[in-house]
């Protein structure tokens, strides 16, 4: 039920929402930040996308899944690092700590099987993670969907190159996922 506030002769409706399961917005954000990178029971809700975090090629799988059309389209089940950065930046230290935990977990997974040794592994993995997160944020923020798609594909290519991962193998993996989706339809 909205609360109505009268302000200098005009009426302003303010909608107040309660968070039935959380004491604060910060509590909600901390819980929302639990995802694939920190929760071993997390299951992908992106159709046709599967990532095996235990495999030797988890890094390129993560890059391709993170920047996939499915993740792009499924805003409802989006990674919270894509959905919440602006809110996290304005939140308390507990929320920032939860975001940092998830980011570090992503960096650790990406850094585990890097094949490009030109830079320190942590630096390379952080750059790949930032490219994935930022690439998805910008791709979702532009009006031109073609530009968003090109941006995601460019981010995938550059991230795979940074990791020293075979772009042909990753491309075949994306093609196989498309074939599986087509057969399921």
Short description:
With 185 residues, the chain is mainly alpha-helical.
Report on the architecture of this protein.
The chain is mainly alpha-helical and 185 residues long. It has one domain (26-184): Tetracycline Repressor, domain 2, CATH 1.10.357. Helices cover 58% and strands 5% of the residues. The chain has nine helices and two strands. The chain has helices at 25-32, 58-66, 69-73, 80-83, 85-89, 93-111, 121-141, 145-163, 167-184, and strands at 3-7, 10-14. Strands 1-2 form a two-stranded antiparallel sheet. The relative contact order is 0.14.
Annotated CATH homologous superfamily: Tetracycline Repressor, domain 2
Low-confidence stretches: 1-19
Radius of gyration, Cα only, in angstroms? Answer: 19 Å
Give the C-level CATH assignment: Mainly Alpha
How much helical structure, as a percent, in the residues? 55-70%
Count of discrete domains: 1
Number of strands: 2
- Write the H/E string, N to C: EEHHHHHHHHH
* CA distance, first residue to last residue: 42 Å
> What is the spatial order of strands in the main beta sheet?
1-2
Shape: globular
Average pLDDT reading: 78
Could you tell me the strand content as a percent range?
Answer: 5-15%
Q: What profile does the largest beta sheet have?
A: 2 strands, antiparallel
Looking at how many chains there are and whether they match, the oligomeric state comes to single chain
Question: Helix- and strand-based class?
Answer: mainly alpha
CATH architecture: Orthogonal Bundle
Helix segment tally: 9
CATH topology: Tetracycline Repressor, domain 2
């Amino acid at each position: 039920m909205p609360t109505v506030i009268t302000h200098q002769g005009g009426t302003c409706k303010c909608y107040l929402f309660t968070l039935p399961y959380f004491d604060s917005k910060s509590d909600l954000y901390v819980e929302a930040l639990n995802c694939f990178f920190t929760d071993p029971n997390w299951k992908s809700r992106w159709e046709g996308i599967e990532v095996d975090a235990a495999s030797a090629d988890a890094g390129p799988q993560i890059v391709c899944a993170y920047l996939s059309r499915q993740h792009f389209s499924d805003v409802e089940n989006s990674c919270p690092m894509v959905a919440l950065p602006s809110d996290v930046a304005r939140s308390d230290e507990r929320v920032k700590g939860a975001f940092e935990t998830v980011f570090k977990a992503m960096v650790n997974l990406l850094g585990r099987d890097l094949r490009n040794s030109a830079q320190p592994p942590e630096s390379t993995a952080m750059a790949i993670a930032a490219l994935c997160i930022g690439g998805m944020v910008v791709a979702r923020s532009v009006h031109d969907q073609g530009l968003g798609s090109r941006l995601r594909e460019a981010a995938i290519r550059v991230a795979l190159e940074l990791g020293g991962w075979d772009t042909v193998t990753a491309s075949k993996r994306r093609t196989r996922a498309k074939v599986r989706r087509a057969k399921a339809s």
